[in-house]
Amino acid sequence: xxxxxxxxxxxxxxxxxxxxxxxxxxxxxxxxxxxxxxxxxxxxxxxxxxxxxxxxxxxxxxxxxxxxxxxxxxxxxxxxxxxxxxxxxxxxxxxxxxxxxxxxxxxxxxxxxxxxxxxxxxxxxxxxxxxxxxxxxxxxxxxxxxxxxxxxxxxxxxxxxxxxxxxxxxx
Length: 171
Description:
Blueprint: E1 7-10, E2 13-21, E3 26-31, E4 39-42, E5 48-50, H1 54-63, H2 78-87, H3 91-110, H4 117-138, H5 142-170
Antiparallel strand pairs: 1-2, 1-5, 2-3, 3-4
Helix pairs in contact: 3-4, 4-5
C-alpha cells in the first residue's frame, strides 16, 4: 500500500499520491508535471508501481553505452518499433528510443536535411518518461538529471576508450 505524498509511477507517468481513501480503497494521484490533473485508482490497480531505486538508476545508466540503436532498413517501420518499445514500459527501451532518434536526427542535420518530427516527438516523450522517474529517484530537477546522466555516460565512454586503447596498443 502506498502512503500519502509518496511518489509512484502510474502507467508511465510519475505521480504523487495526494489522497489515500482506506474506506473506499482508492488512491488519488497527481502527475508531477501537471498537478492540476487528478487520477483516482483502486488500491489493487496493477498499473501503479513504486519508483525504481537509486541503485537501479545507476545500473541503467551504466548500461547506456552498450544499448544498441534500432537498426531497420525500412525507415517507415521505425515508428512501429518506437511504439512497441514505448509500450513495453522498460527503461532500457526508452534509452533505445532516445539513442535512435538522436542518431537519426543528427544524421539528417549532417546531411543538411530537416530533422524528423516523428523522431523528435518520440525522443522528447522517451526522455520525459525516463528522466522524470530518474529525477524523482535522484532528488534532482529534470534538467539536472539530463546533465547527470550525460556526465556519467561521458565518463563511461572515456573509460571504455582508455581500456580499448590499452588493449590495442600496450598489450
